[in-house]
Amino acid sequence: MIDLNERISELYEQFKDFPTKNKIVRINQKDDAFELVVFEILFQNLHGIKKLNFNEEAHREIVLKSIVPAPDDSVDIFFEEEDLDDRKYHIVQVKNSDLDPQKIEDLFILMENSIKKFLRKPRDTEKNLKDIINETDFSKQYINDCIYYVVHRGRTNYIKGQKSNQKVITGNELEILEKGTEQMSVPREFFEIDTKNNFIVNNFIDTVTAKVNTNIPQSLLCNFSGYDLAKLNNKYSNTLLGRNILYGQNLRESLSKNSKTYESMFETINKEPELFLFYNNGITIIASSTNAIEKDTEKEMIQIENFSIINGAQTTSTLGAYLKDAEINNELEKIENLKKVFVLTKIYEINQDLKNHKAISENIKIYNNTQTPLSSRDMVSIRKEQIDLKNRLLMGESPNIFVFIKKGEGVPSYPKSLPYQRVSNETLAQLAFCAFYFEPFTAKDKKTSLFDNDGKEDVILNYDYNRLFNPNNGILFVKSKKEIDELLFIYLLHQDSKKRQKSFIKEELNVLNQRHLNNPEQEKRKEEQIDAKKRSLEISNVCLFYNITCYYIIKSNYDYLIENVETSSFSVRRYFDSSDSYKQEIIRAFIKLFYTKTIDIIRKNTGVENITNWIRAEKNQKTFIDSLNDILNTDGFNLSQDYIDFVKKFRS
Fold first, then answer.
1. By Cβ atoms counted within 10 A, which residue in 369, 390, 397, 547 is the most buried?
2. Of 625, 489, 513, which Cα lies nearest the Cα of 569?
3. What is the mean pLDDT of the chain?
């Protein structure tokens, strides 16, 4: 596990006195380097850098784009996360010291006020923060997509009245986070067993049988204190920023506070804590090692290593929430109630000494999580159709497309695939909706529910999942590898076109903002132009699904006019050849023929309505397609010629 102080020293030596102006790491200010450590660890899954290295130009660039030099207006890190058409903004205050709850609350208020000030009156924002924000797509439409973090070296990781978009990260959690997706279990903890109020059975499956038959895991059956479990939950509650590593190998998420089960558990703890054991089904833990140590005649100590609760996340997280509320409100009676709670606990020791340990571990996880319909993407990853799709798209003749069907998968070295050909099943599903079904709204709306099990017998999981992943007639099985590869290339083309389009619009805005006009009419016209450019910029940021729909509707109308179009394909080799002008030419043509048309249609149909709200309204899917069809009907000849020229020039 990383030593934070050592890493701070390493990065200080690398980055001290950097950059030449507005220094991020100042001489003799070693605490400045803690911001780099936090950025490196906290967002490693987003920026893709495991270890910052000053000698890498790309590393220096991302530091300059994300770390705010002093004076920073109470924001140390401002990081933009892009996920298809969605944006999230991570806003961080870093303190290399132990903060009390009141100070943490004050820092959240300061950060939120700085962001509101930027949106309301950017001129009053400190220049260093303003410059970094201006290099992103941040605007008032994303005010609800901000996540605020306070990072410090103490133990407090929650405060009273904490909002859902506020995260408190401790040094201990940073050390665990540093291991990234490799850290899917708690390294080691000790549990004290009070034998007066408890019991422990060592190897409740016959000990002799277990030792002779190496297919049977060693096991423990005992009661754990509800208070100990609550403390454990809260200790690791932020370690994966929403995914507690205590449940790292659990296939199910914990309950929300709105759950009736959640409320009933609270009521039991309040009114009859001694009966919690009898009302609750208990929890199941898998670990690499367990060791029961006799402490004295009345107590034993259990040491568990590399463990995860694989059934009982709902119970344990509820206990943690109860303890949080009691501590925040200083309700000592409730804390004493929690100490009277016991939870039946099964512990299975699964390690490499056990034959077929991987299969046994996976089966335990699955069979312990089948009380309700399976719904998570991780659960779906073991389904046959997902594995078949993955193999179909990767193996055989090129193109070779690698589909990530679960988190943490590594890209195989063979067969070779290009970066644009590597895609999650979730993203591929969204792209397929707008390309093959002309449903941009569905692409955005069904993301969170795509892998839910509706329990209907006539479809696999649910209607939308069935349309995509049914091996018999799902569109991802009907379409050829070549057609899916084209879809992924169009997605890449949209991304690169968006960068060019945004850069061009921002240049135009800079020119307009620098113009000083004395004539009121001209000044008014300038402000109208600025508003129009900003509107186009907002639309270009969120129109991915509509732009892909635009491409495929035009393609479906005019492909029949092109000879041998079925055998033609875009020249990927030329696109990635820096000495060839192909990439810049196709981007310009794509913007002119598709991107600009998409933006124009959305702008004409939104008026002054919030762009994000318009995109998220189902009725506007039809509005967009109807508007595009009107263009095809009124200007079909010219559009067909433009499309034919586009295909002939860029597809071979």
1. 547
2. 489
3. 87
Express each pLDDT in 273-324 by its tens digit.
Answer: 999 999 998 999 988 888 877 666 567 788 898 898 888 888 999 999 999 9
Peptide bond into 399 cis (omega under 30): yes
pLDDT tens track for 536-567: 998 999 999 999 999 999 999 999 999 888 88
Tokens matching residue 345: 């606990």
Q: Tell me: cis bond preceding 19? Omega within 30 of 0 counts.
A: yes
The DSSP output letter for 399 is P
Three-state DSSP at 333 gives helix
pLDDT tens digits for range 386-412: 999 999 999 988 999 999 987 667 788
Question: Cis peptide before 217, with omega less than 30 degrees from 0?
Answer: no
Retrieve residue 395's tokens. 């193996």
Q: Which two tokens stand for residue 532?
A: 């129009």
Cα three-residue angle 331-336-340, rounded to 5 degrees: 145
- What is the reported pLDDT for 373? 39
Enter the tokens of residue 599: 């933006």
The answer to whether the CB of 386 falls within 8 A of the CB of 469 is yes
What sign for the dihedral angle of Cα 134, 139, 145, 148? positive
Q: Which two tokens stand for residue 180?
A: 């990234």
pLDDT in tens, 602-623: 999 998 888 888 998 999 999 9
| Neighbouring C-beta atoms of residue 241, cutoff 10 Å | 17
Task: Specify the DSSP element, H or E, that contains 315.
Answer: helix 313-328
CB 233 within 8 A of CB 320: yes
CA 579 to chain centre: 36
Residues 6 or more apart in contact with residue 551 via CB below 8 angstroms: 435, 490, 594
> Over the stretch 198-242, which tens digit does the pLDDT of each residue have?
555 555 444 444 444 556 667 788 889 999 999 999 888 776 555
The span from the CA of 89 to the CA of 135, in Å, is 13
Cis peptide before 69 (omega within 30 of 0): no
CA–CA separation, 429 and 466 (whole Å):
11
